[in-house]
Amino acid sequence: MADDVCLITGVGPGTGRALVERFARGYRVAMLARNEERLAGIATEVSGATAYPCDVTDTESLTDTVVAVTAELGAPKVVIHNAVGGAFGDFLSIEPEALDRNFQVNVMALLHVARATAPAMIERGEGAIVCTGNTSAYRGKAGFSGFAPTKAAQRILAESMARRLGPDGVHVAYVAIDAVIDLPWTRKRWEDAPDDFFCKPADIAGECWNIAHQPKSAWSFDVTIRPFGEKW
């Protein structure tokens, strides 16, 4: 498996880094994010991870980056679209530009990275595209007008991709994280919350690994992750 390649977008200090650490145990990992300094730091700490600074909303840059990854590491066998754009506020208060910007990150970047990587997976007859999302993909709360519509569209795009690619042996899955992710800033915001309130990035990454390696006879599409104490 060491010759296989995993491409991960949105590599930040939380879930993104955890995904890199988990998949680097079996893949050469291409890390995509805008923060070049952060990527460089992770690359020095995680063996098998290579930094590719990229703004996923820049279609030309994203396409060129996938070409570079393929030339330098090989065609990705697994793609994880973890990049996320978010904004809070109701439809009367948000800036319309925020909705468009988040749509570019959450939906259009998924479309472009999938179009750039799926043909090689189809030719090979195997592969996985996993998209990390959240429960905004299923409900439009009043204060999420700049975010929920884009996550709902993202999930529907992923479902359409799954129906198209499944017969070719390529697994597409949508992983909704119904939780507060355990990060320094979330710990500070919910400082009185117990450990069980938070979802660990490493555990999210572990589940994404499991989903990417499901046998063809038992594929999942909709997967929801939540801590055992989460109300739902």
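The record above closes out task 2.4. Task 2.5 opens with a second protein, given below.
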Amino acid sequence: MPDKKAHWESVYATKQPNEVSWTQEVPQTSLSFIHSFDLPKSVRIIDVGGGDSKLVDYLVAEGYVNVTVLDISEKALERAKMRLGLLAKKVTWINSDITEFEPKERYDIWHDRATFHFLTTSEQINKYLSIAGSSVTSYMTIGTFSNNGPKKCSGLDITQYSEEQLQQKLAEYFSKIKCITEDHTTPFNTIQNFLFCSFKKIS
């Protein structure tokens, strides 16, 4: 199996945001799902696989004060910190593979856009679910490639999901609130179909 960390460090060392397919200027769907939970700005939010996504910029600008960004690529996190400047001090940054993450705290909202679909073995998926299940107190929002989405991303195989398949994967820990599908237009003007869902933690 290729070294995942080396792969992503190489991607972020050699490509700019306009050269990778997942770049979004405004992560509107993610923000809409987070807002839909109607929780105070003091909630603990973790953006899993956040990379140098701009979601953290918007959350900090909106006044969220407990934001954590986790990514396997140290280079991606460094780019996000550079972009945020002094505001980066308001964010907790964690460099880790999500399947090896050992949370030191619990999170009210777990956000993941385009990390879960890179997990392609039962072992990886079960580790992810166990970590999320034990560390999330309230809500999860997750975006993956749908069955109409790409079969590969960044040269790596991915796992596609239907609404029912995603719901089944998370059923031990989370109950579905709602799902939507959305076309993401990449910086190269290609279309990727995403499945976005929100879930409530089963208490």
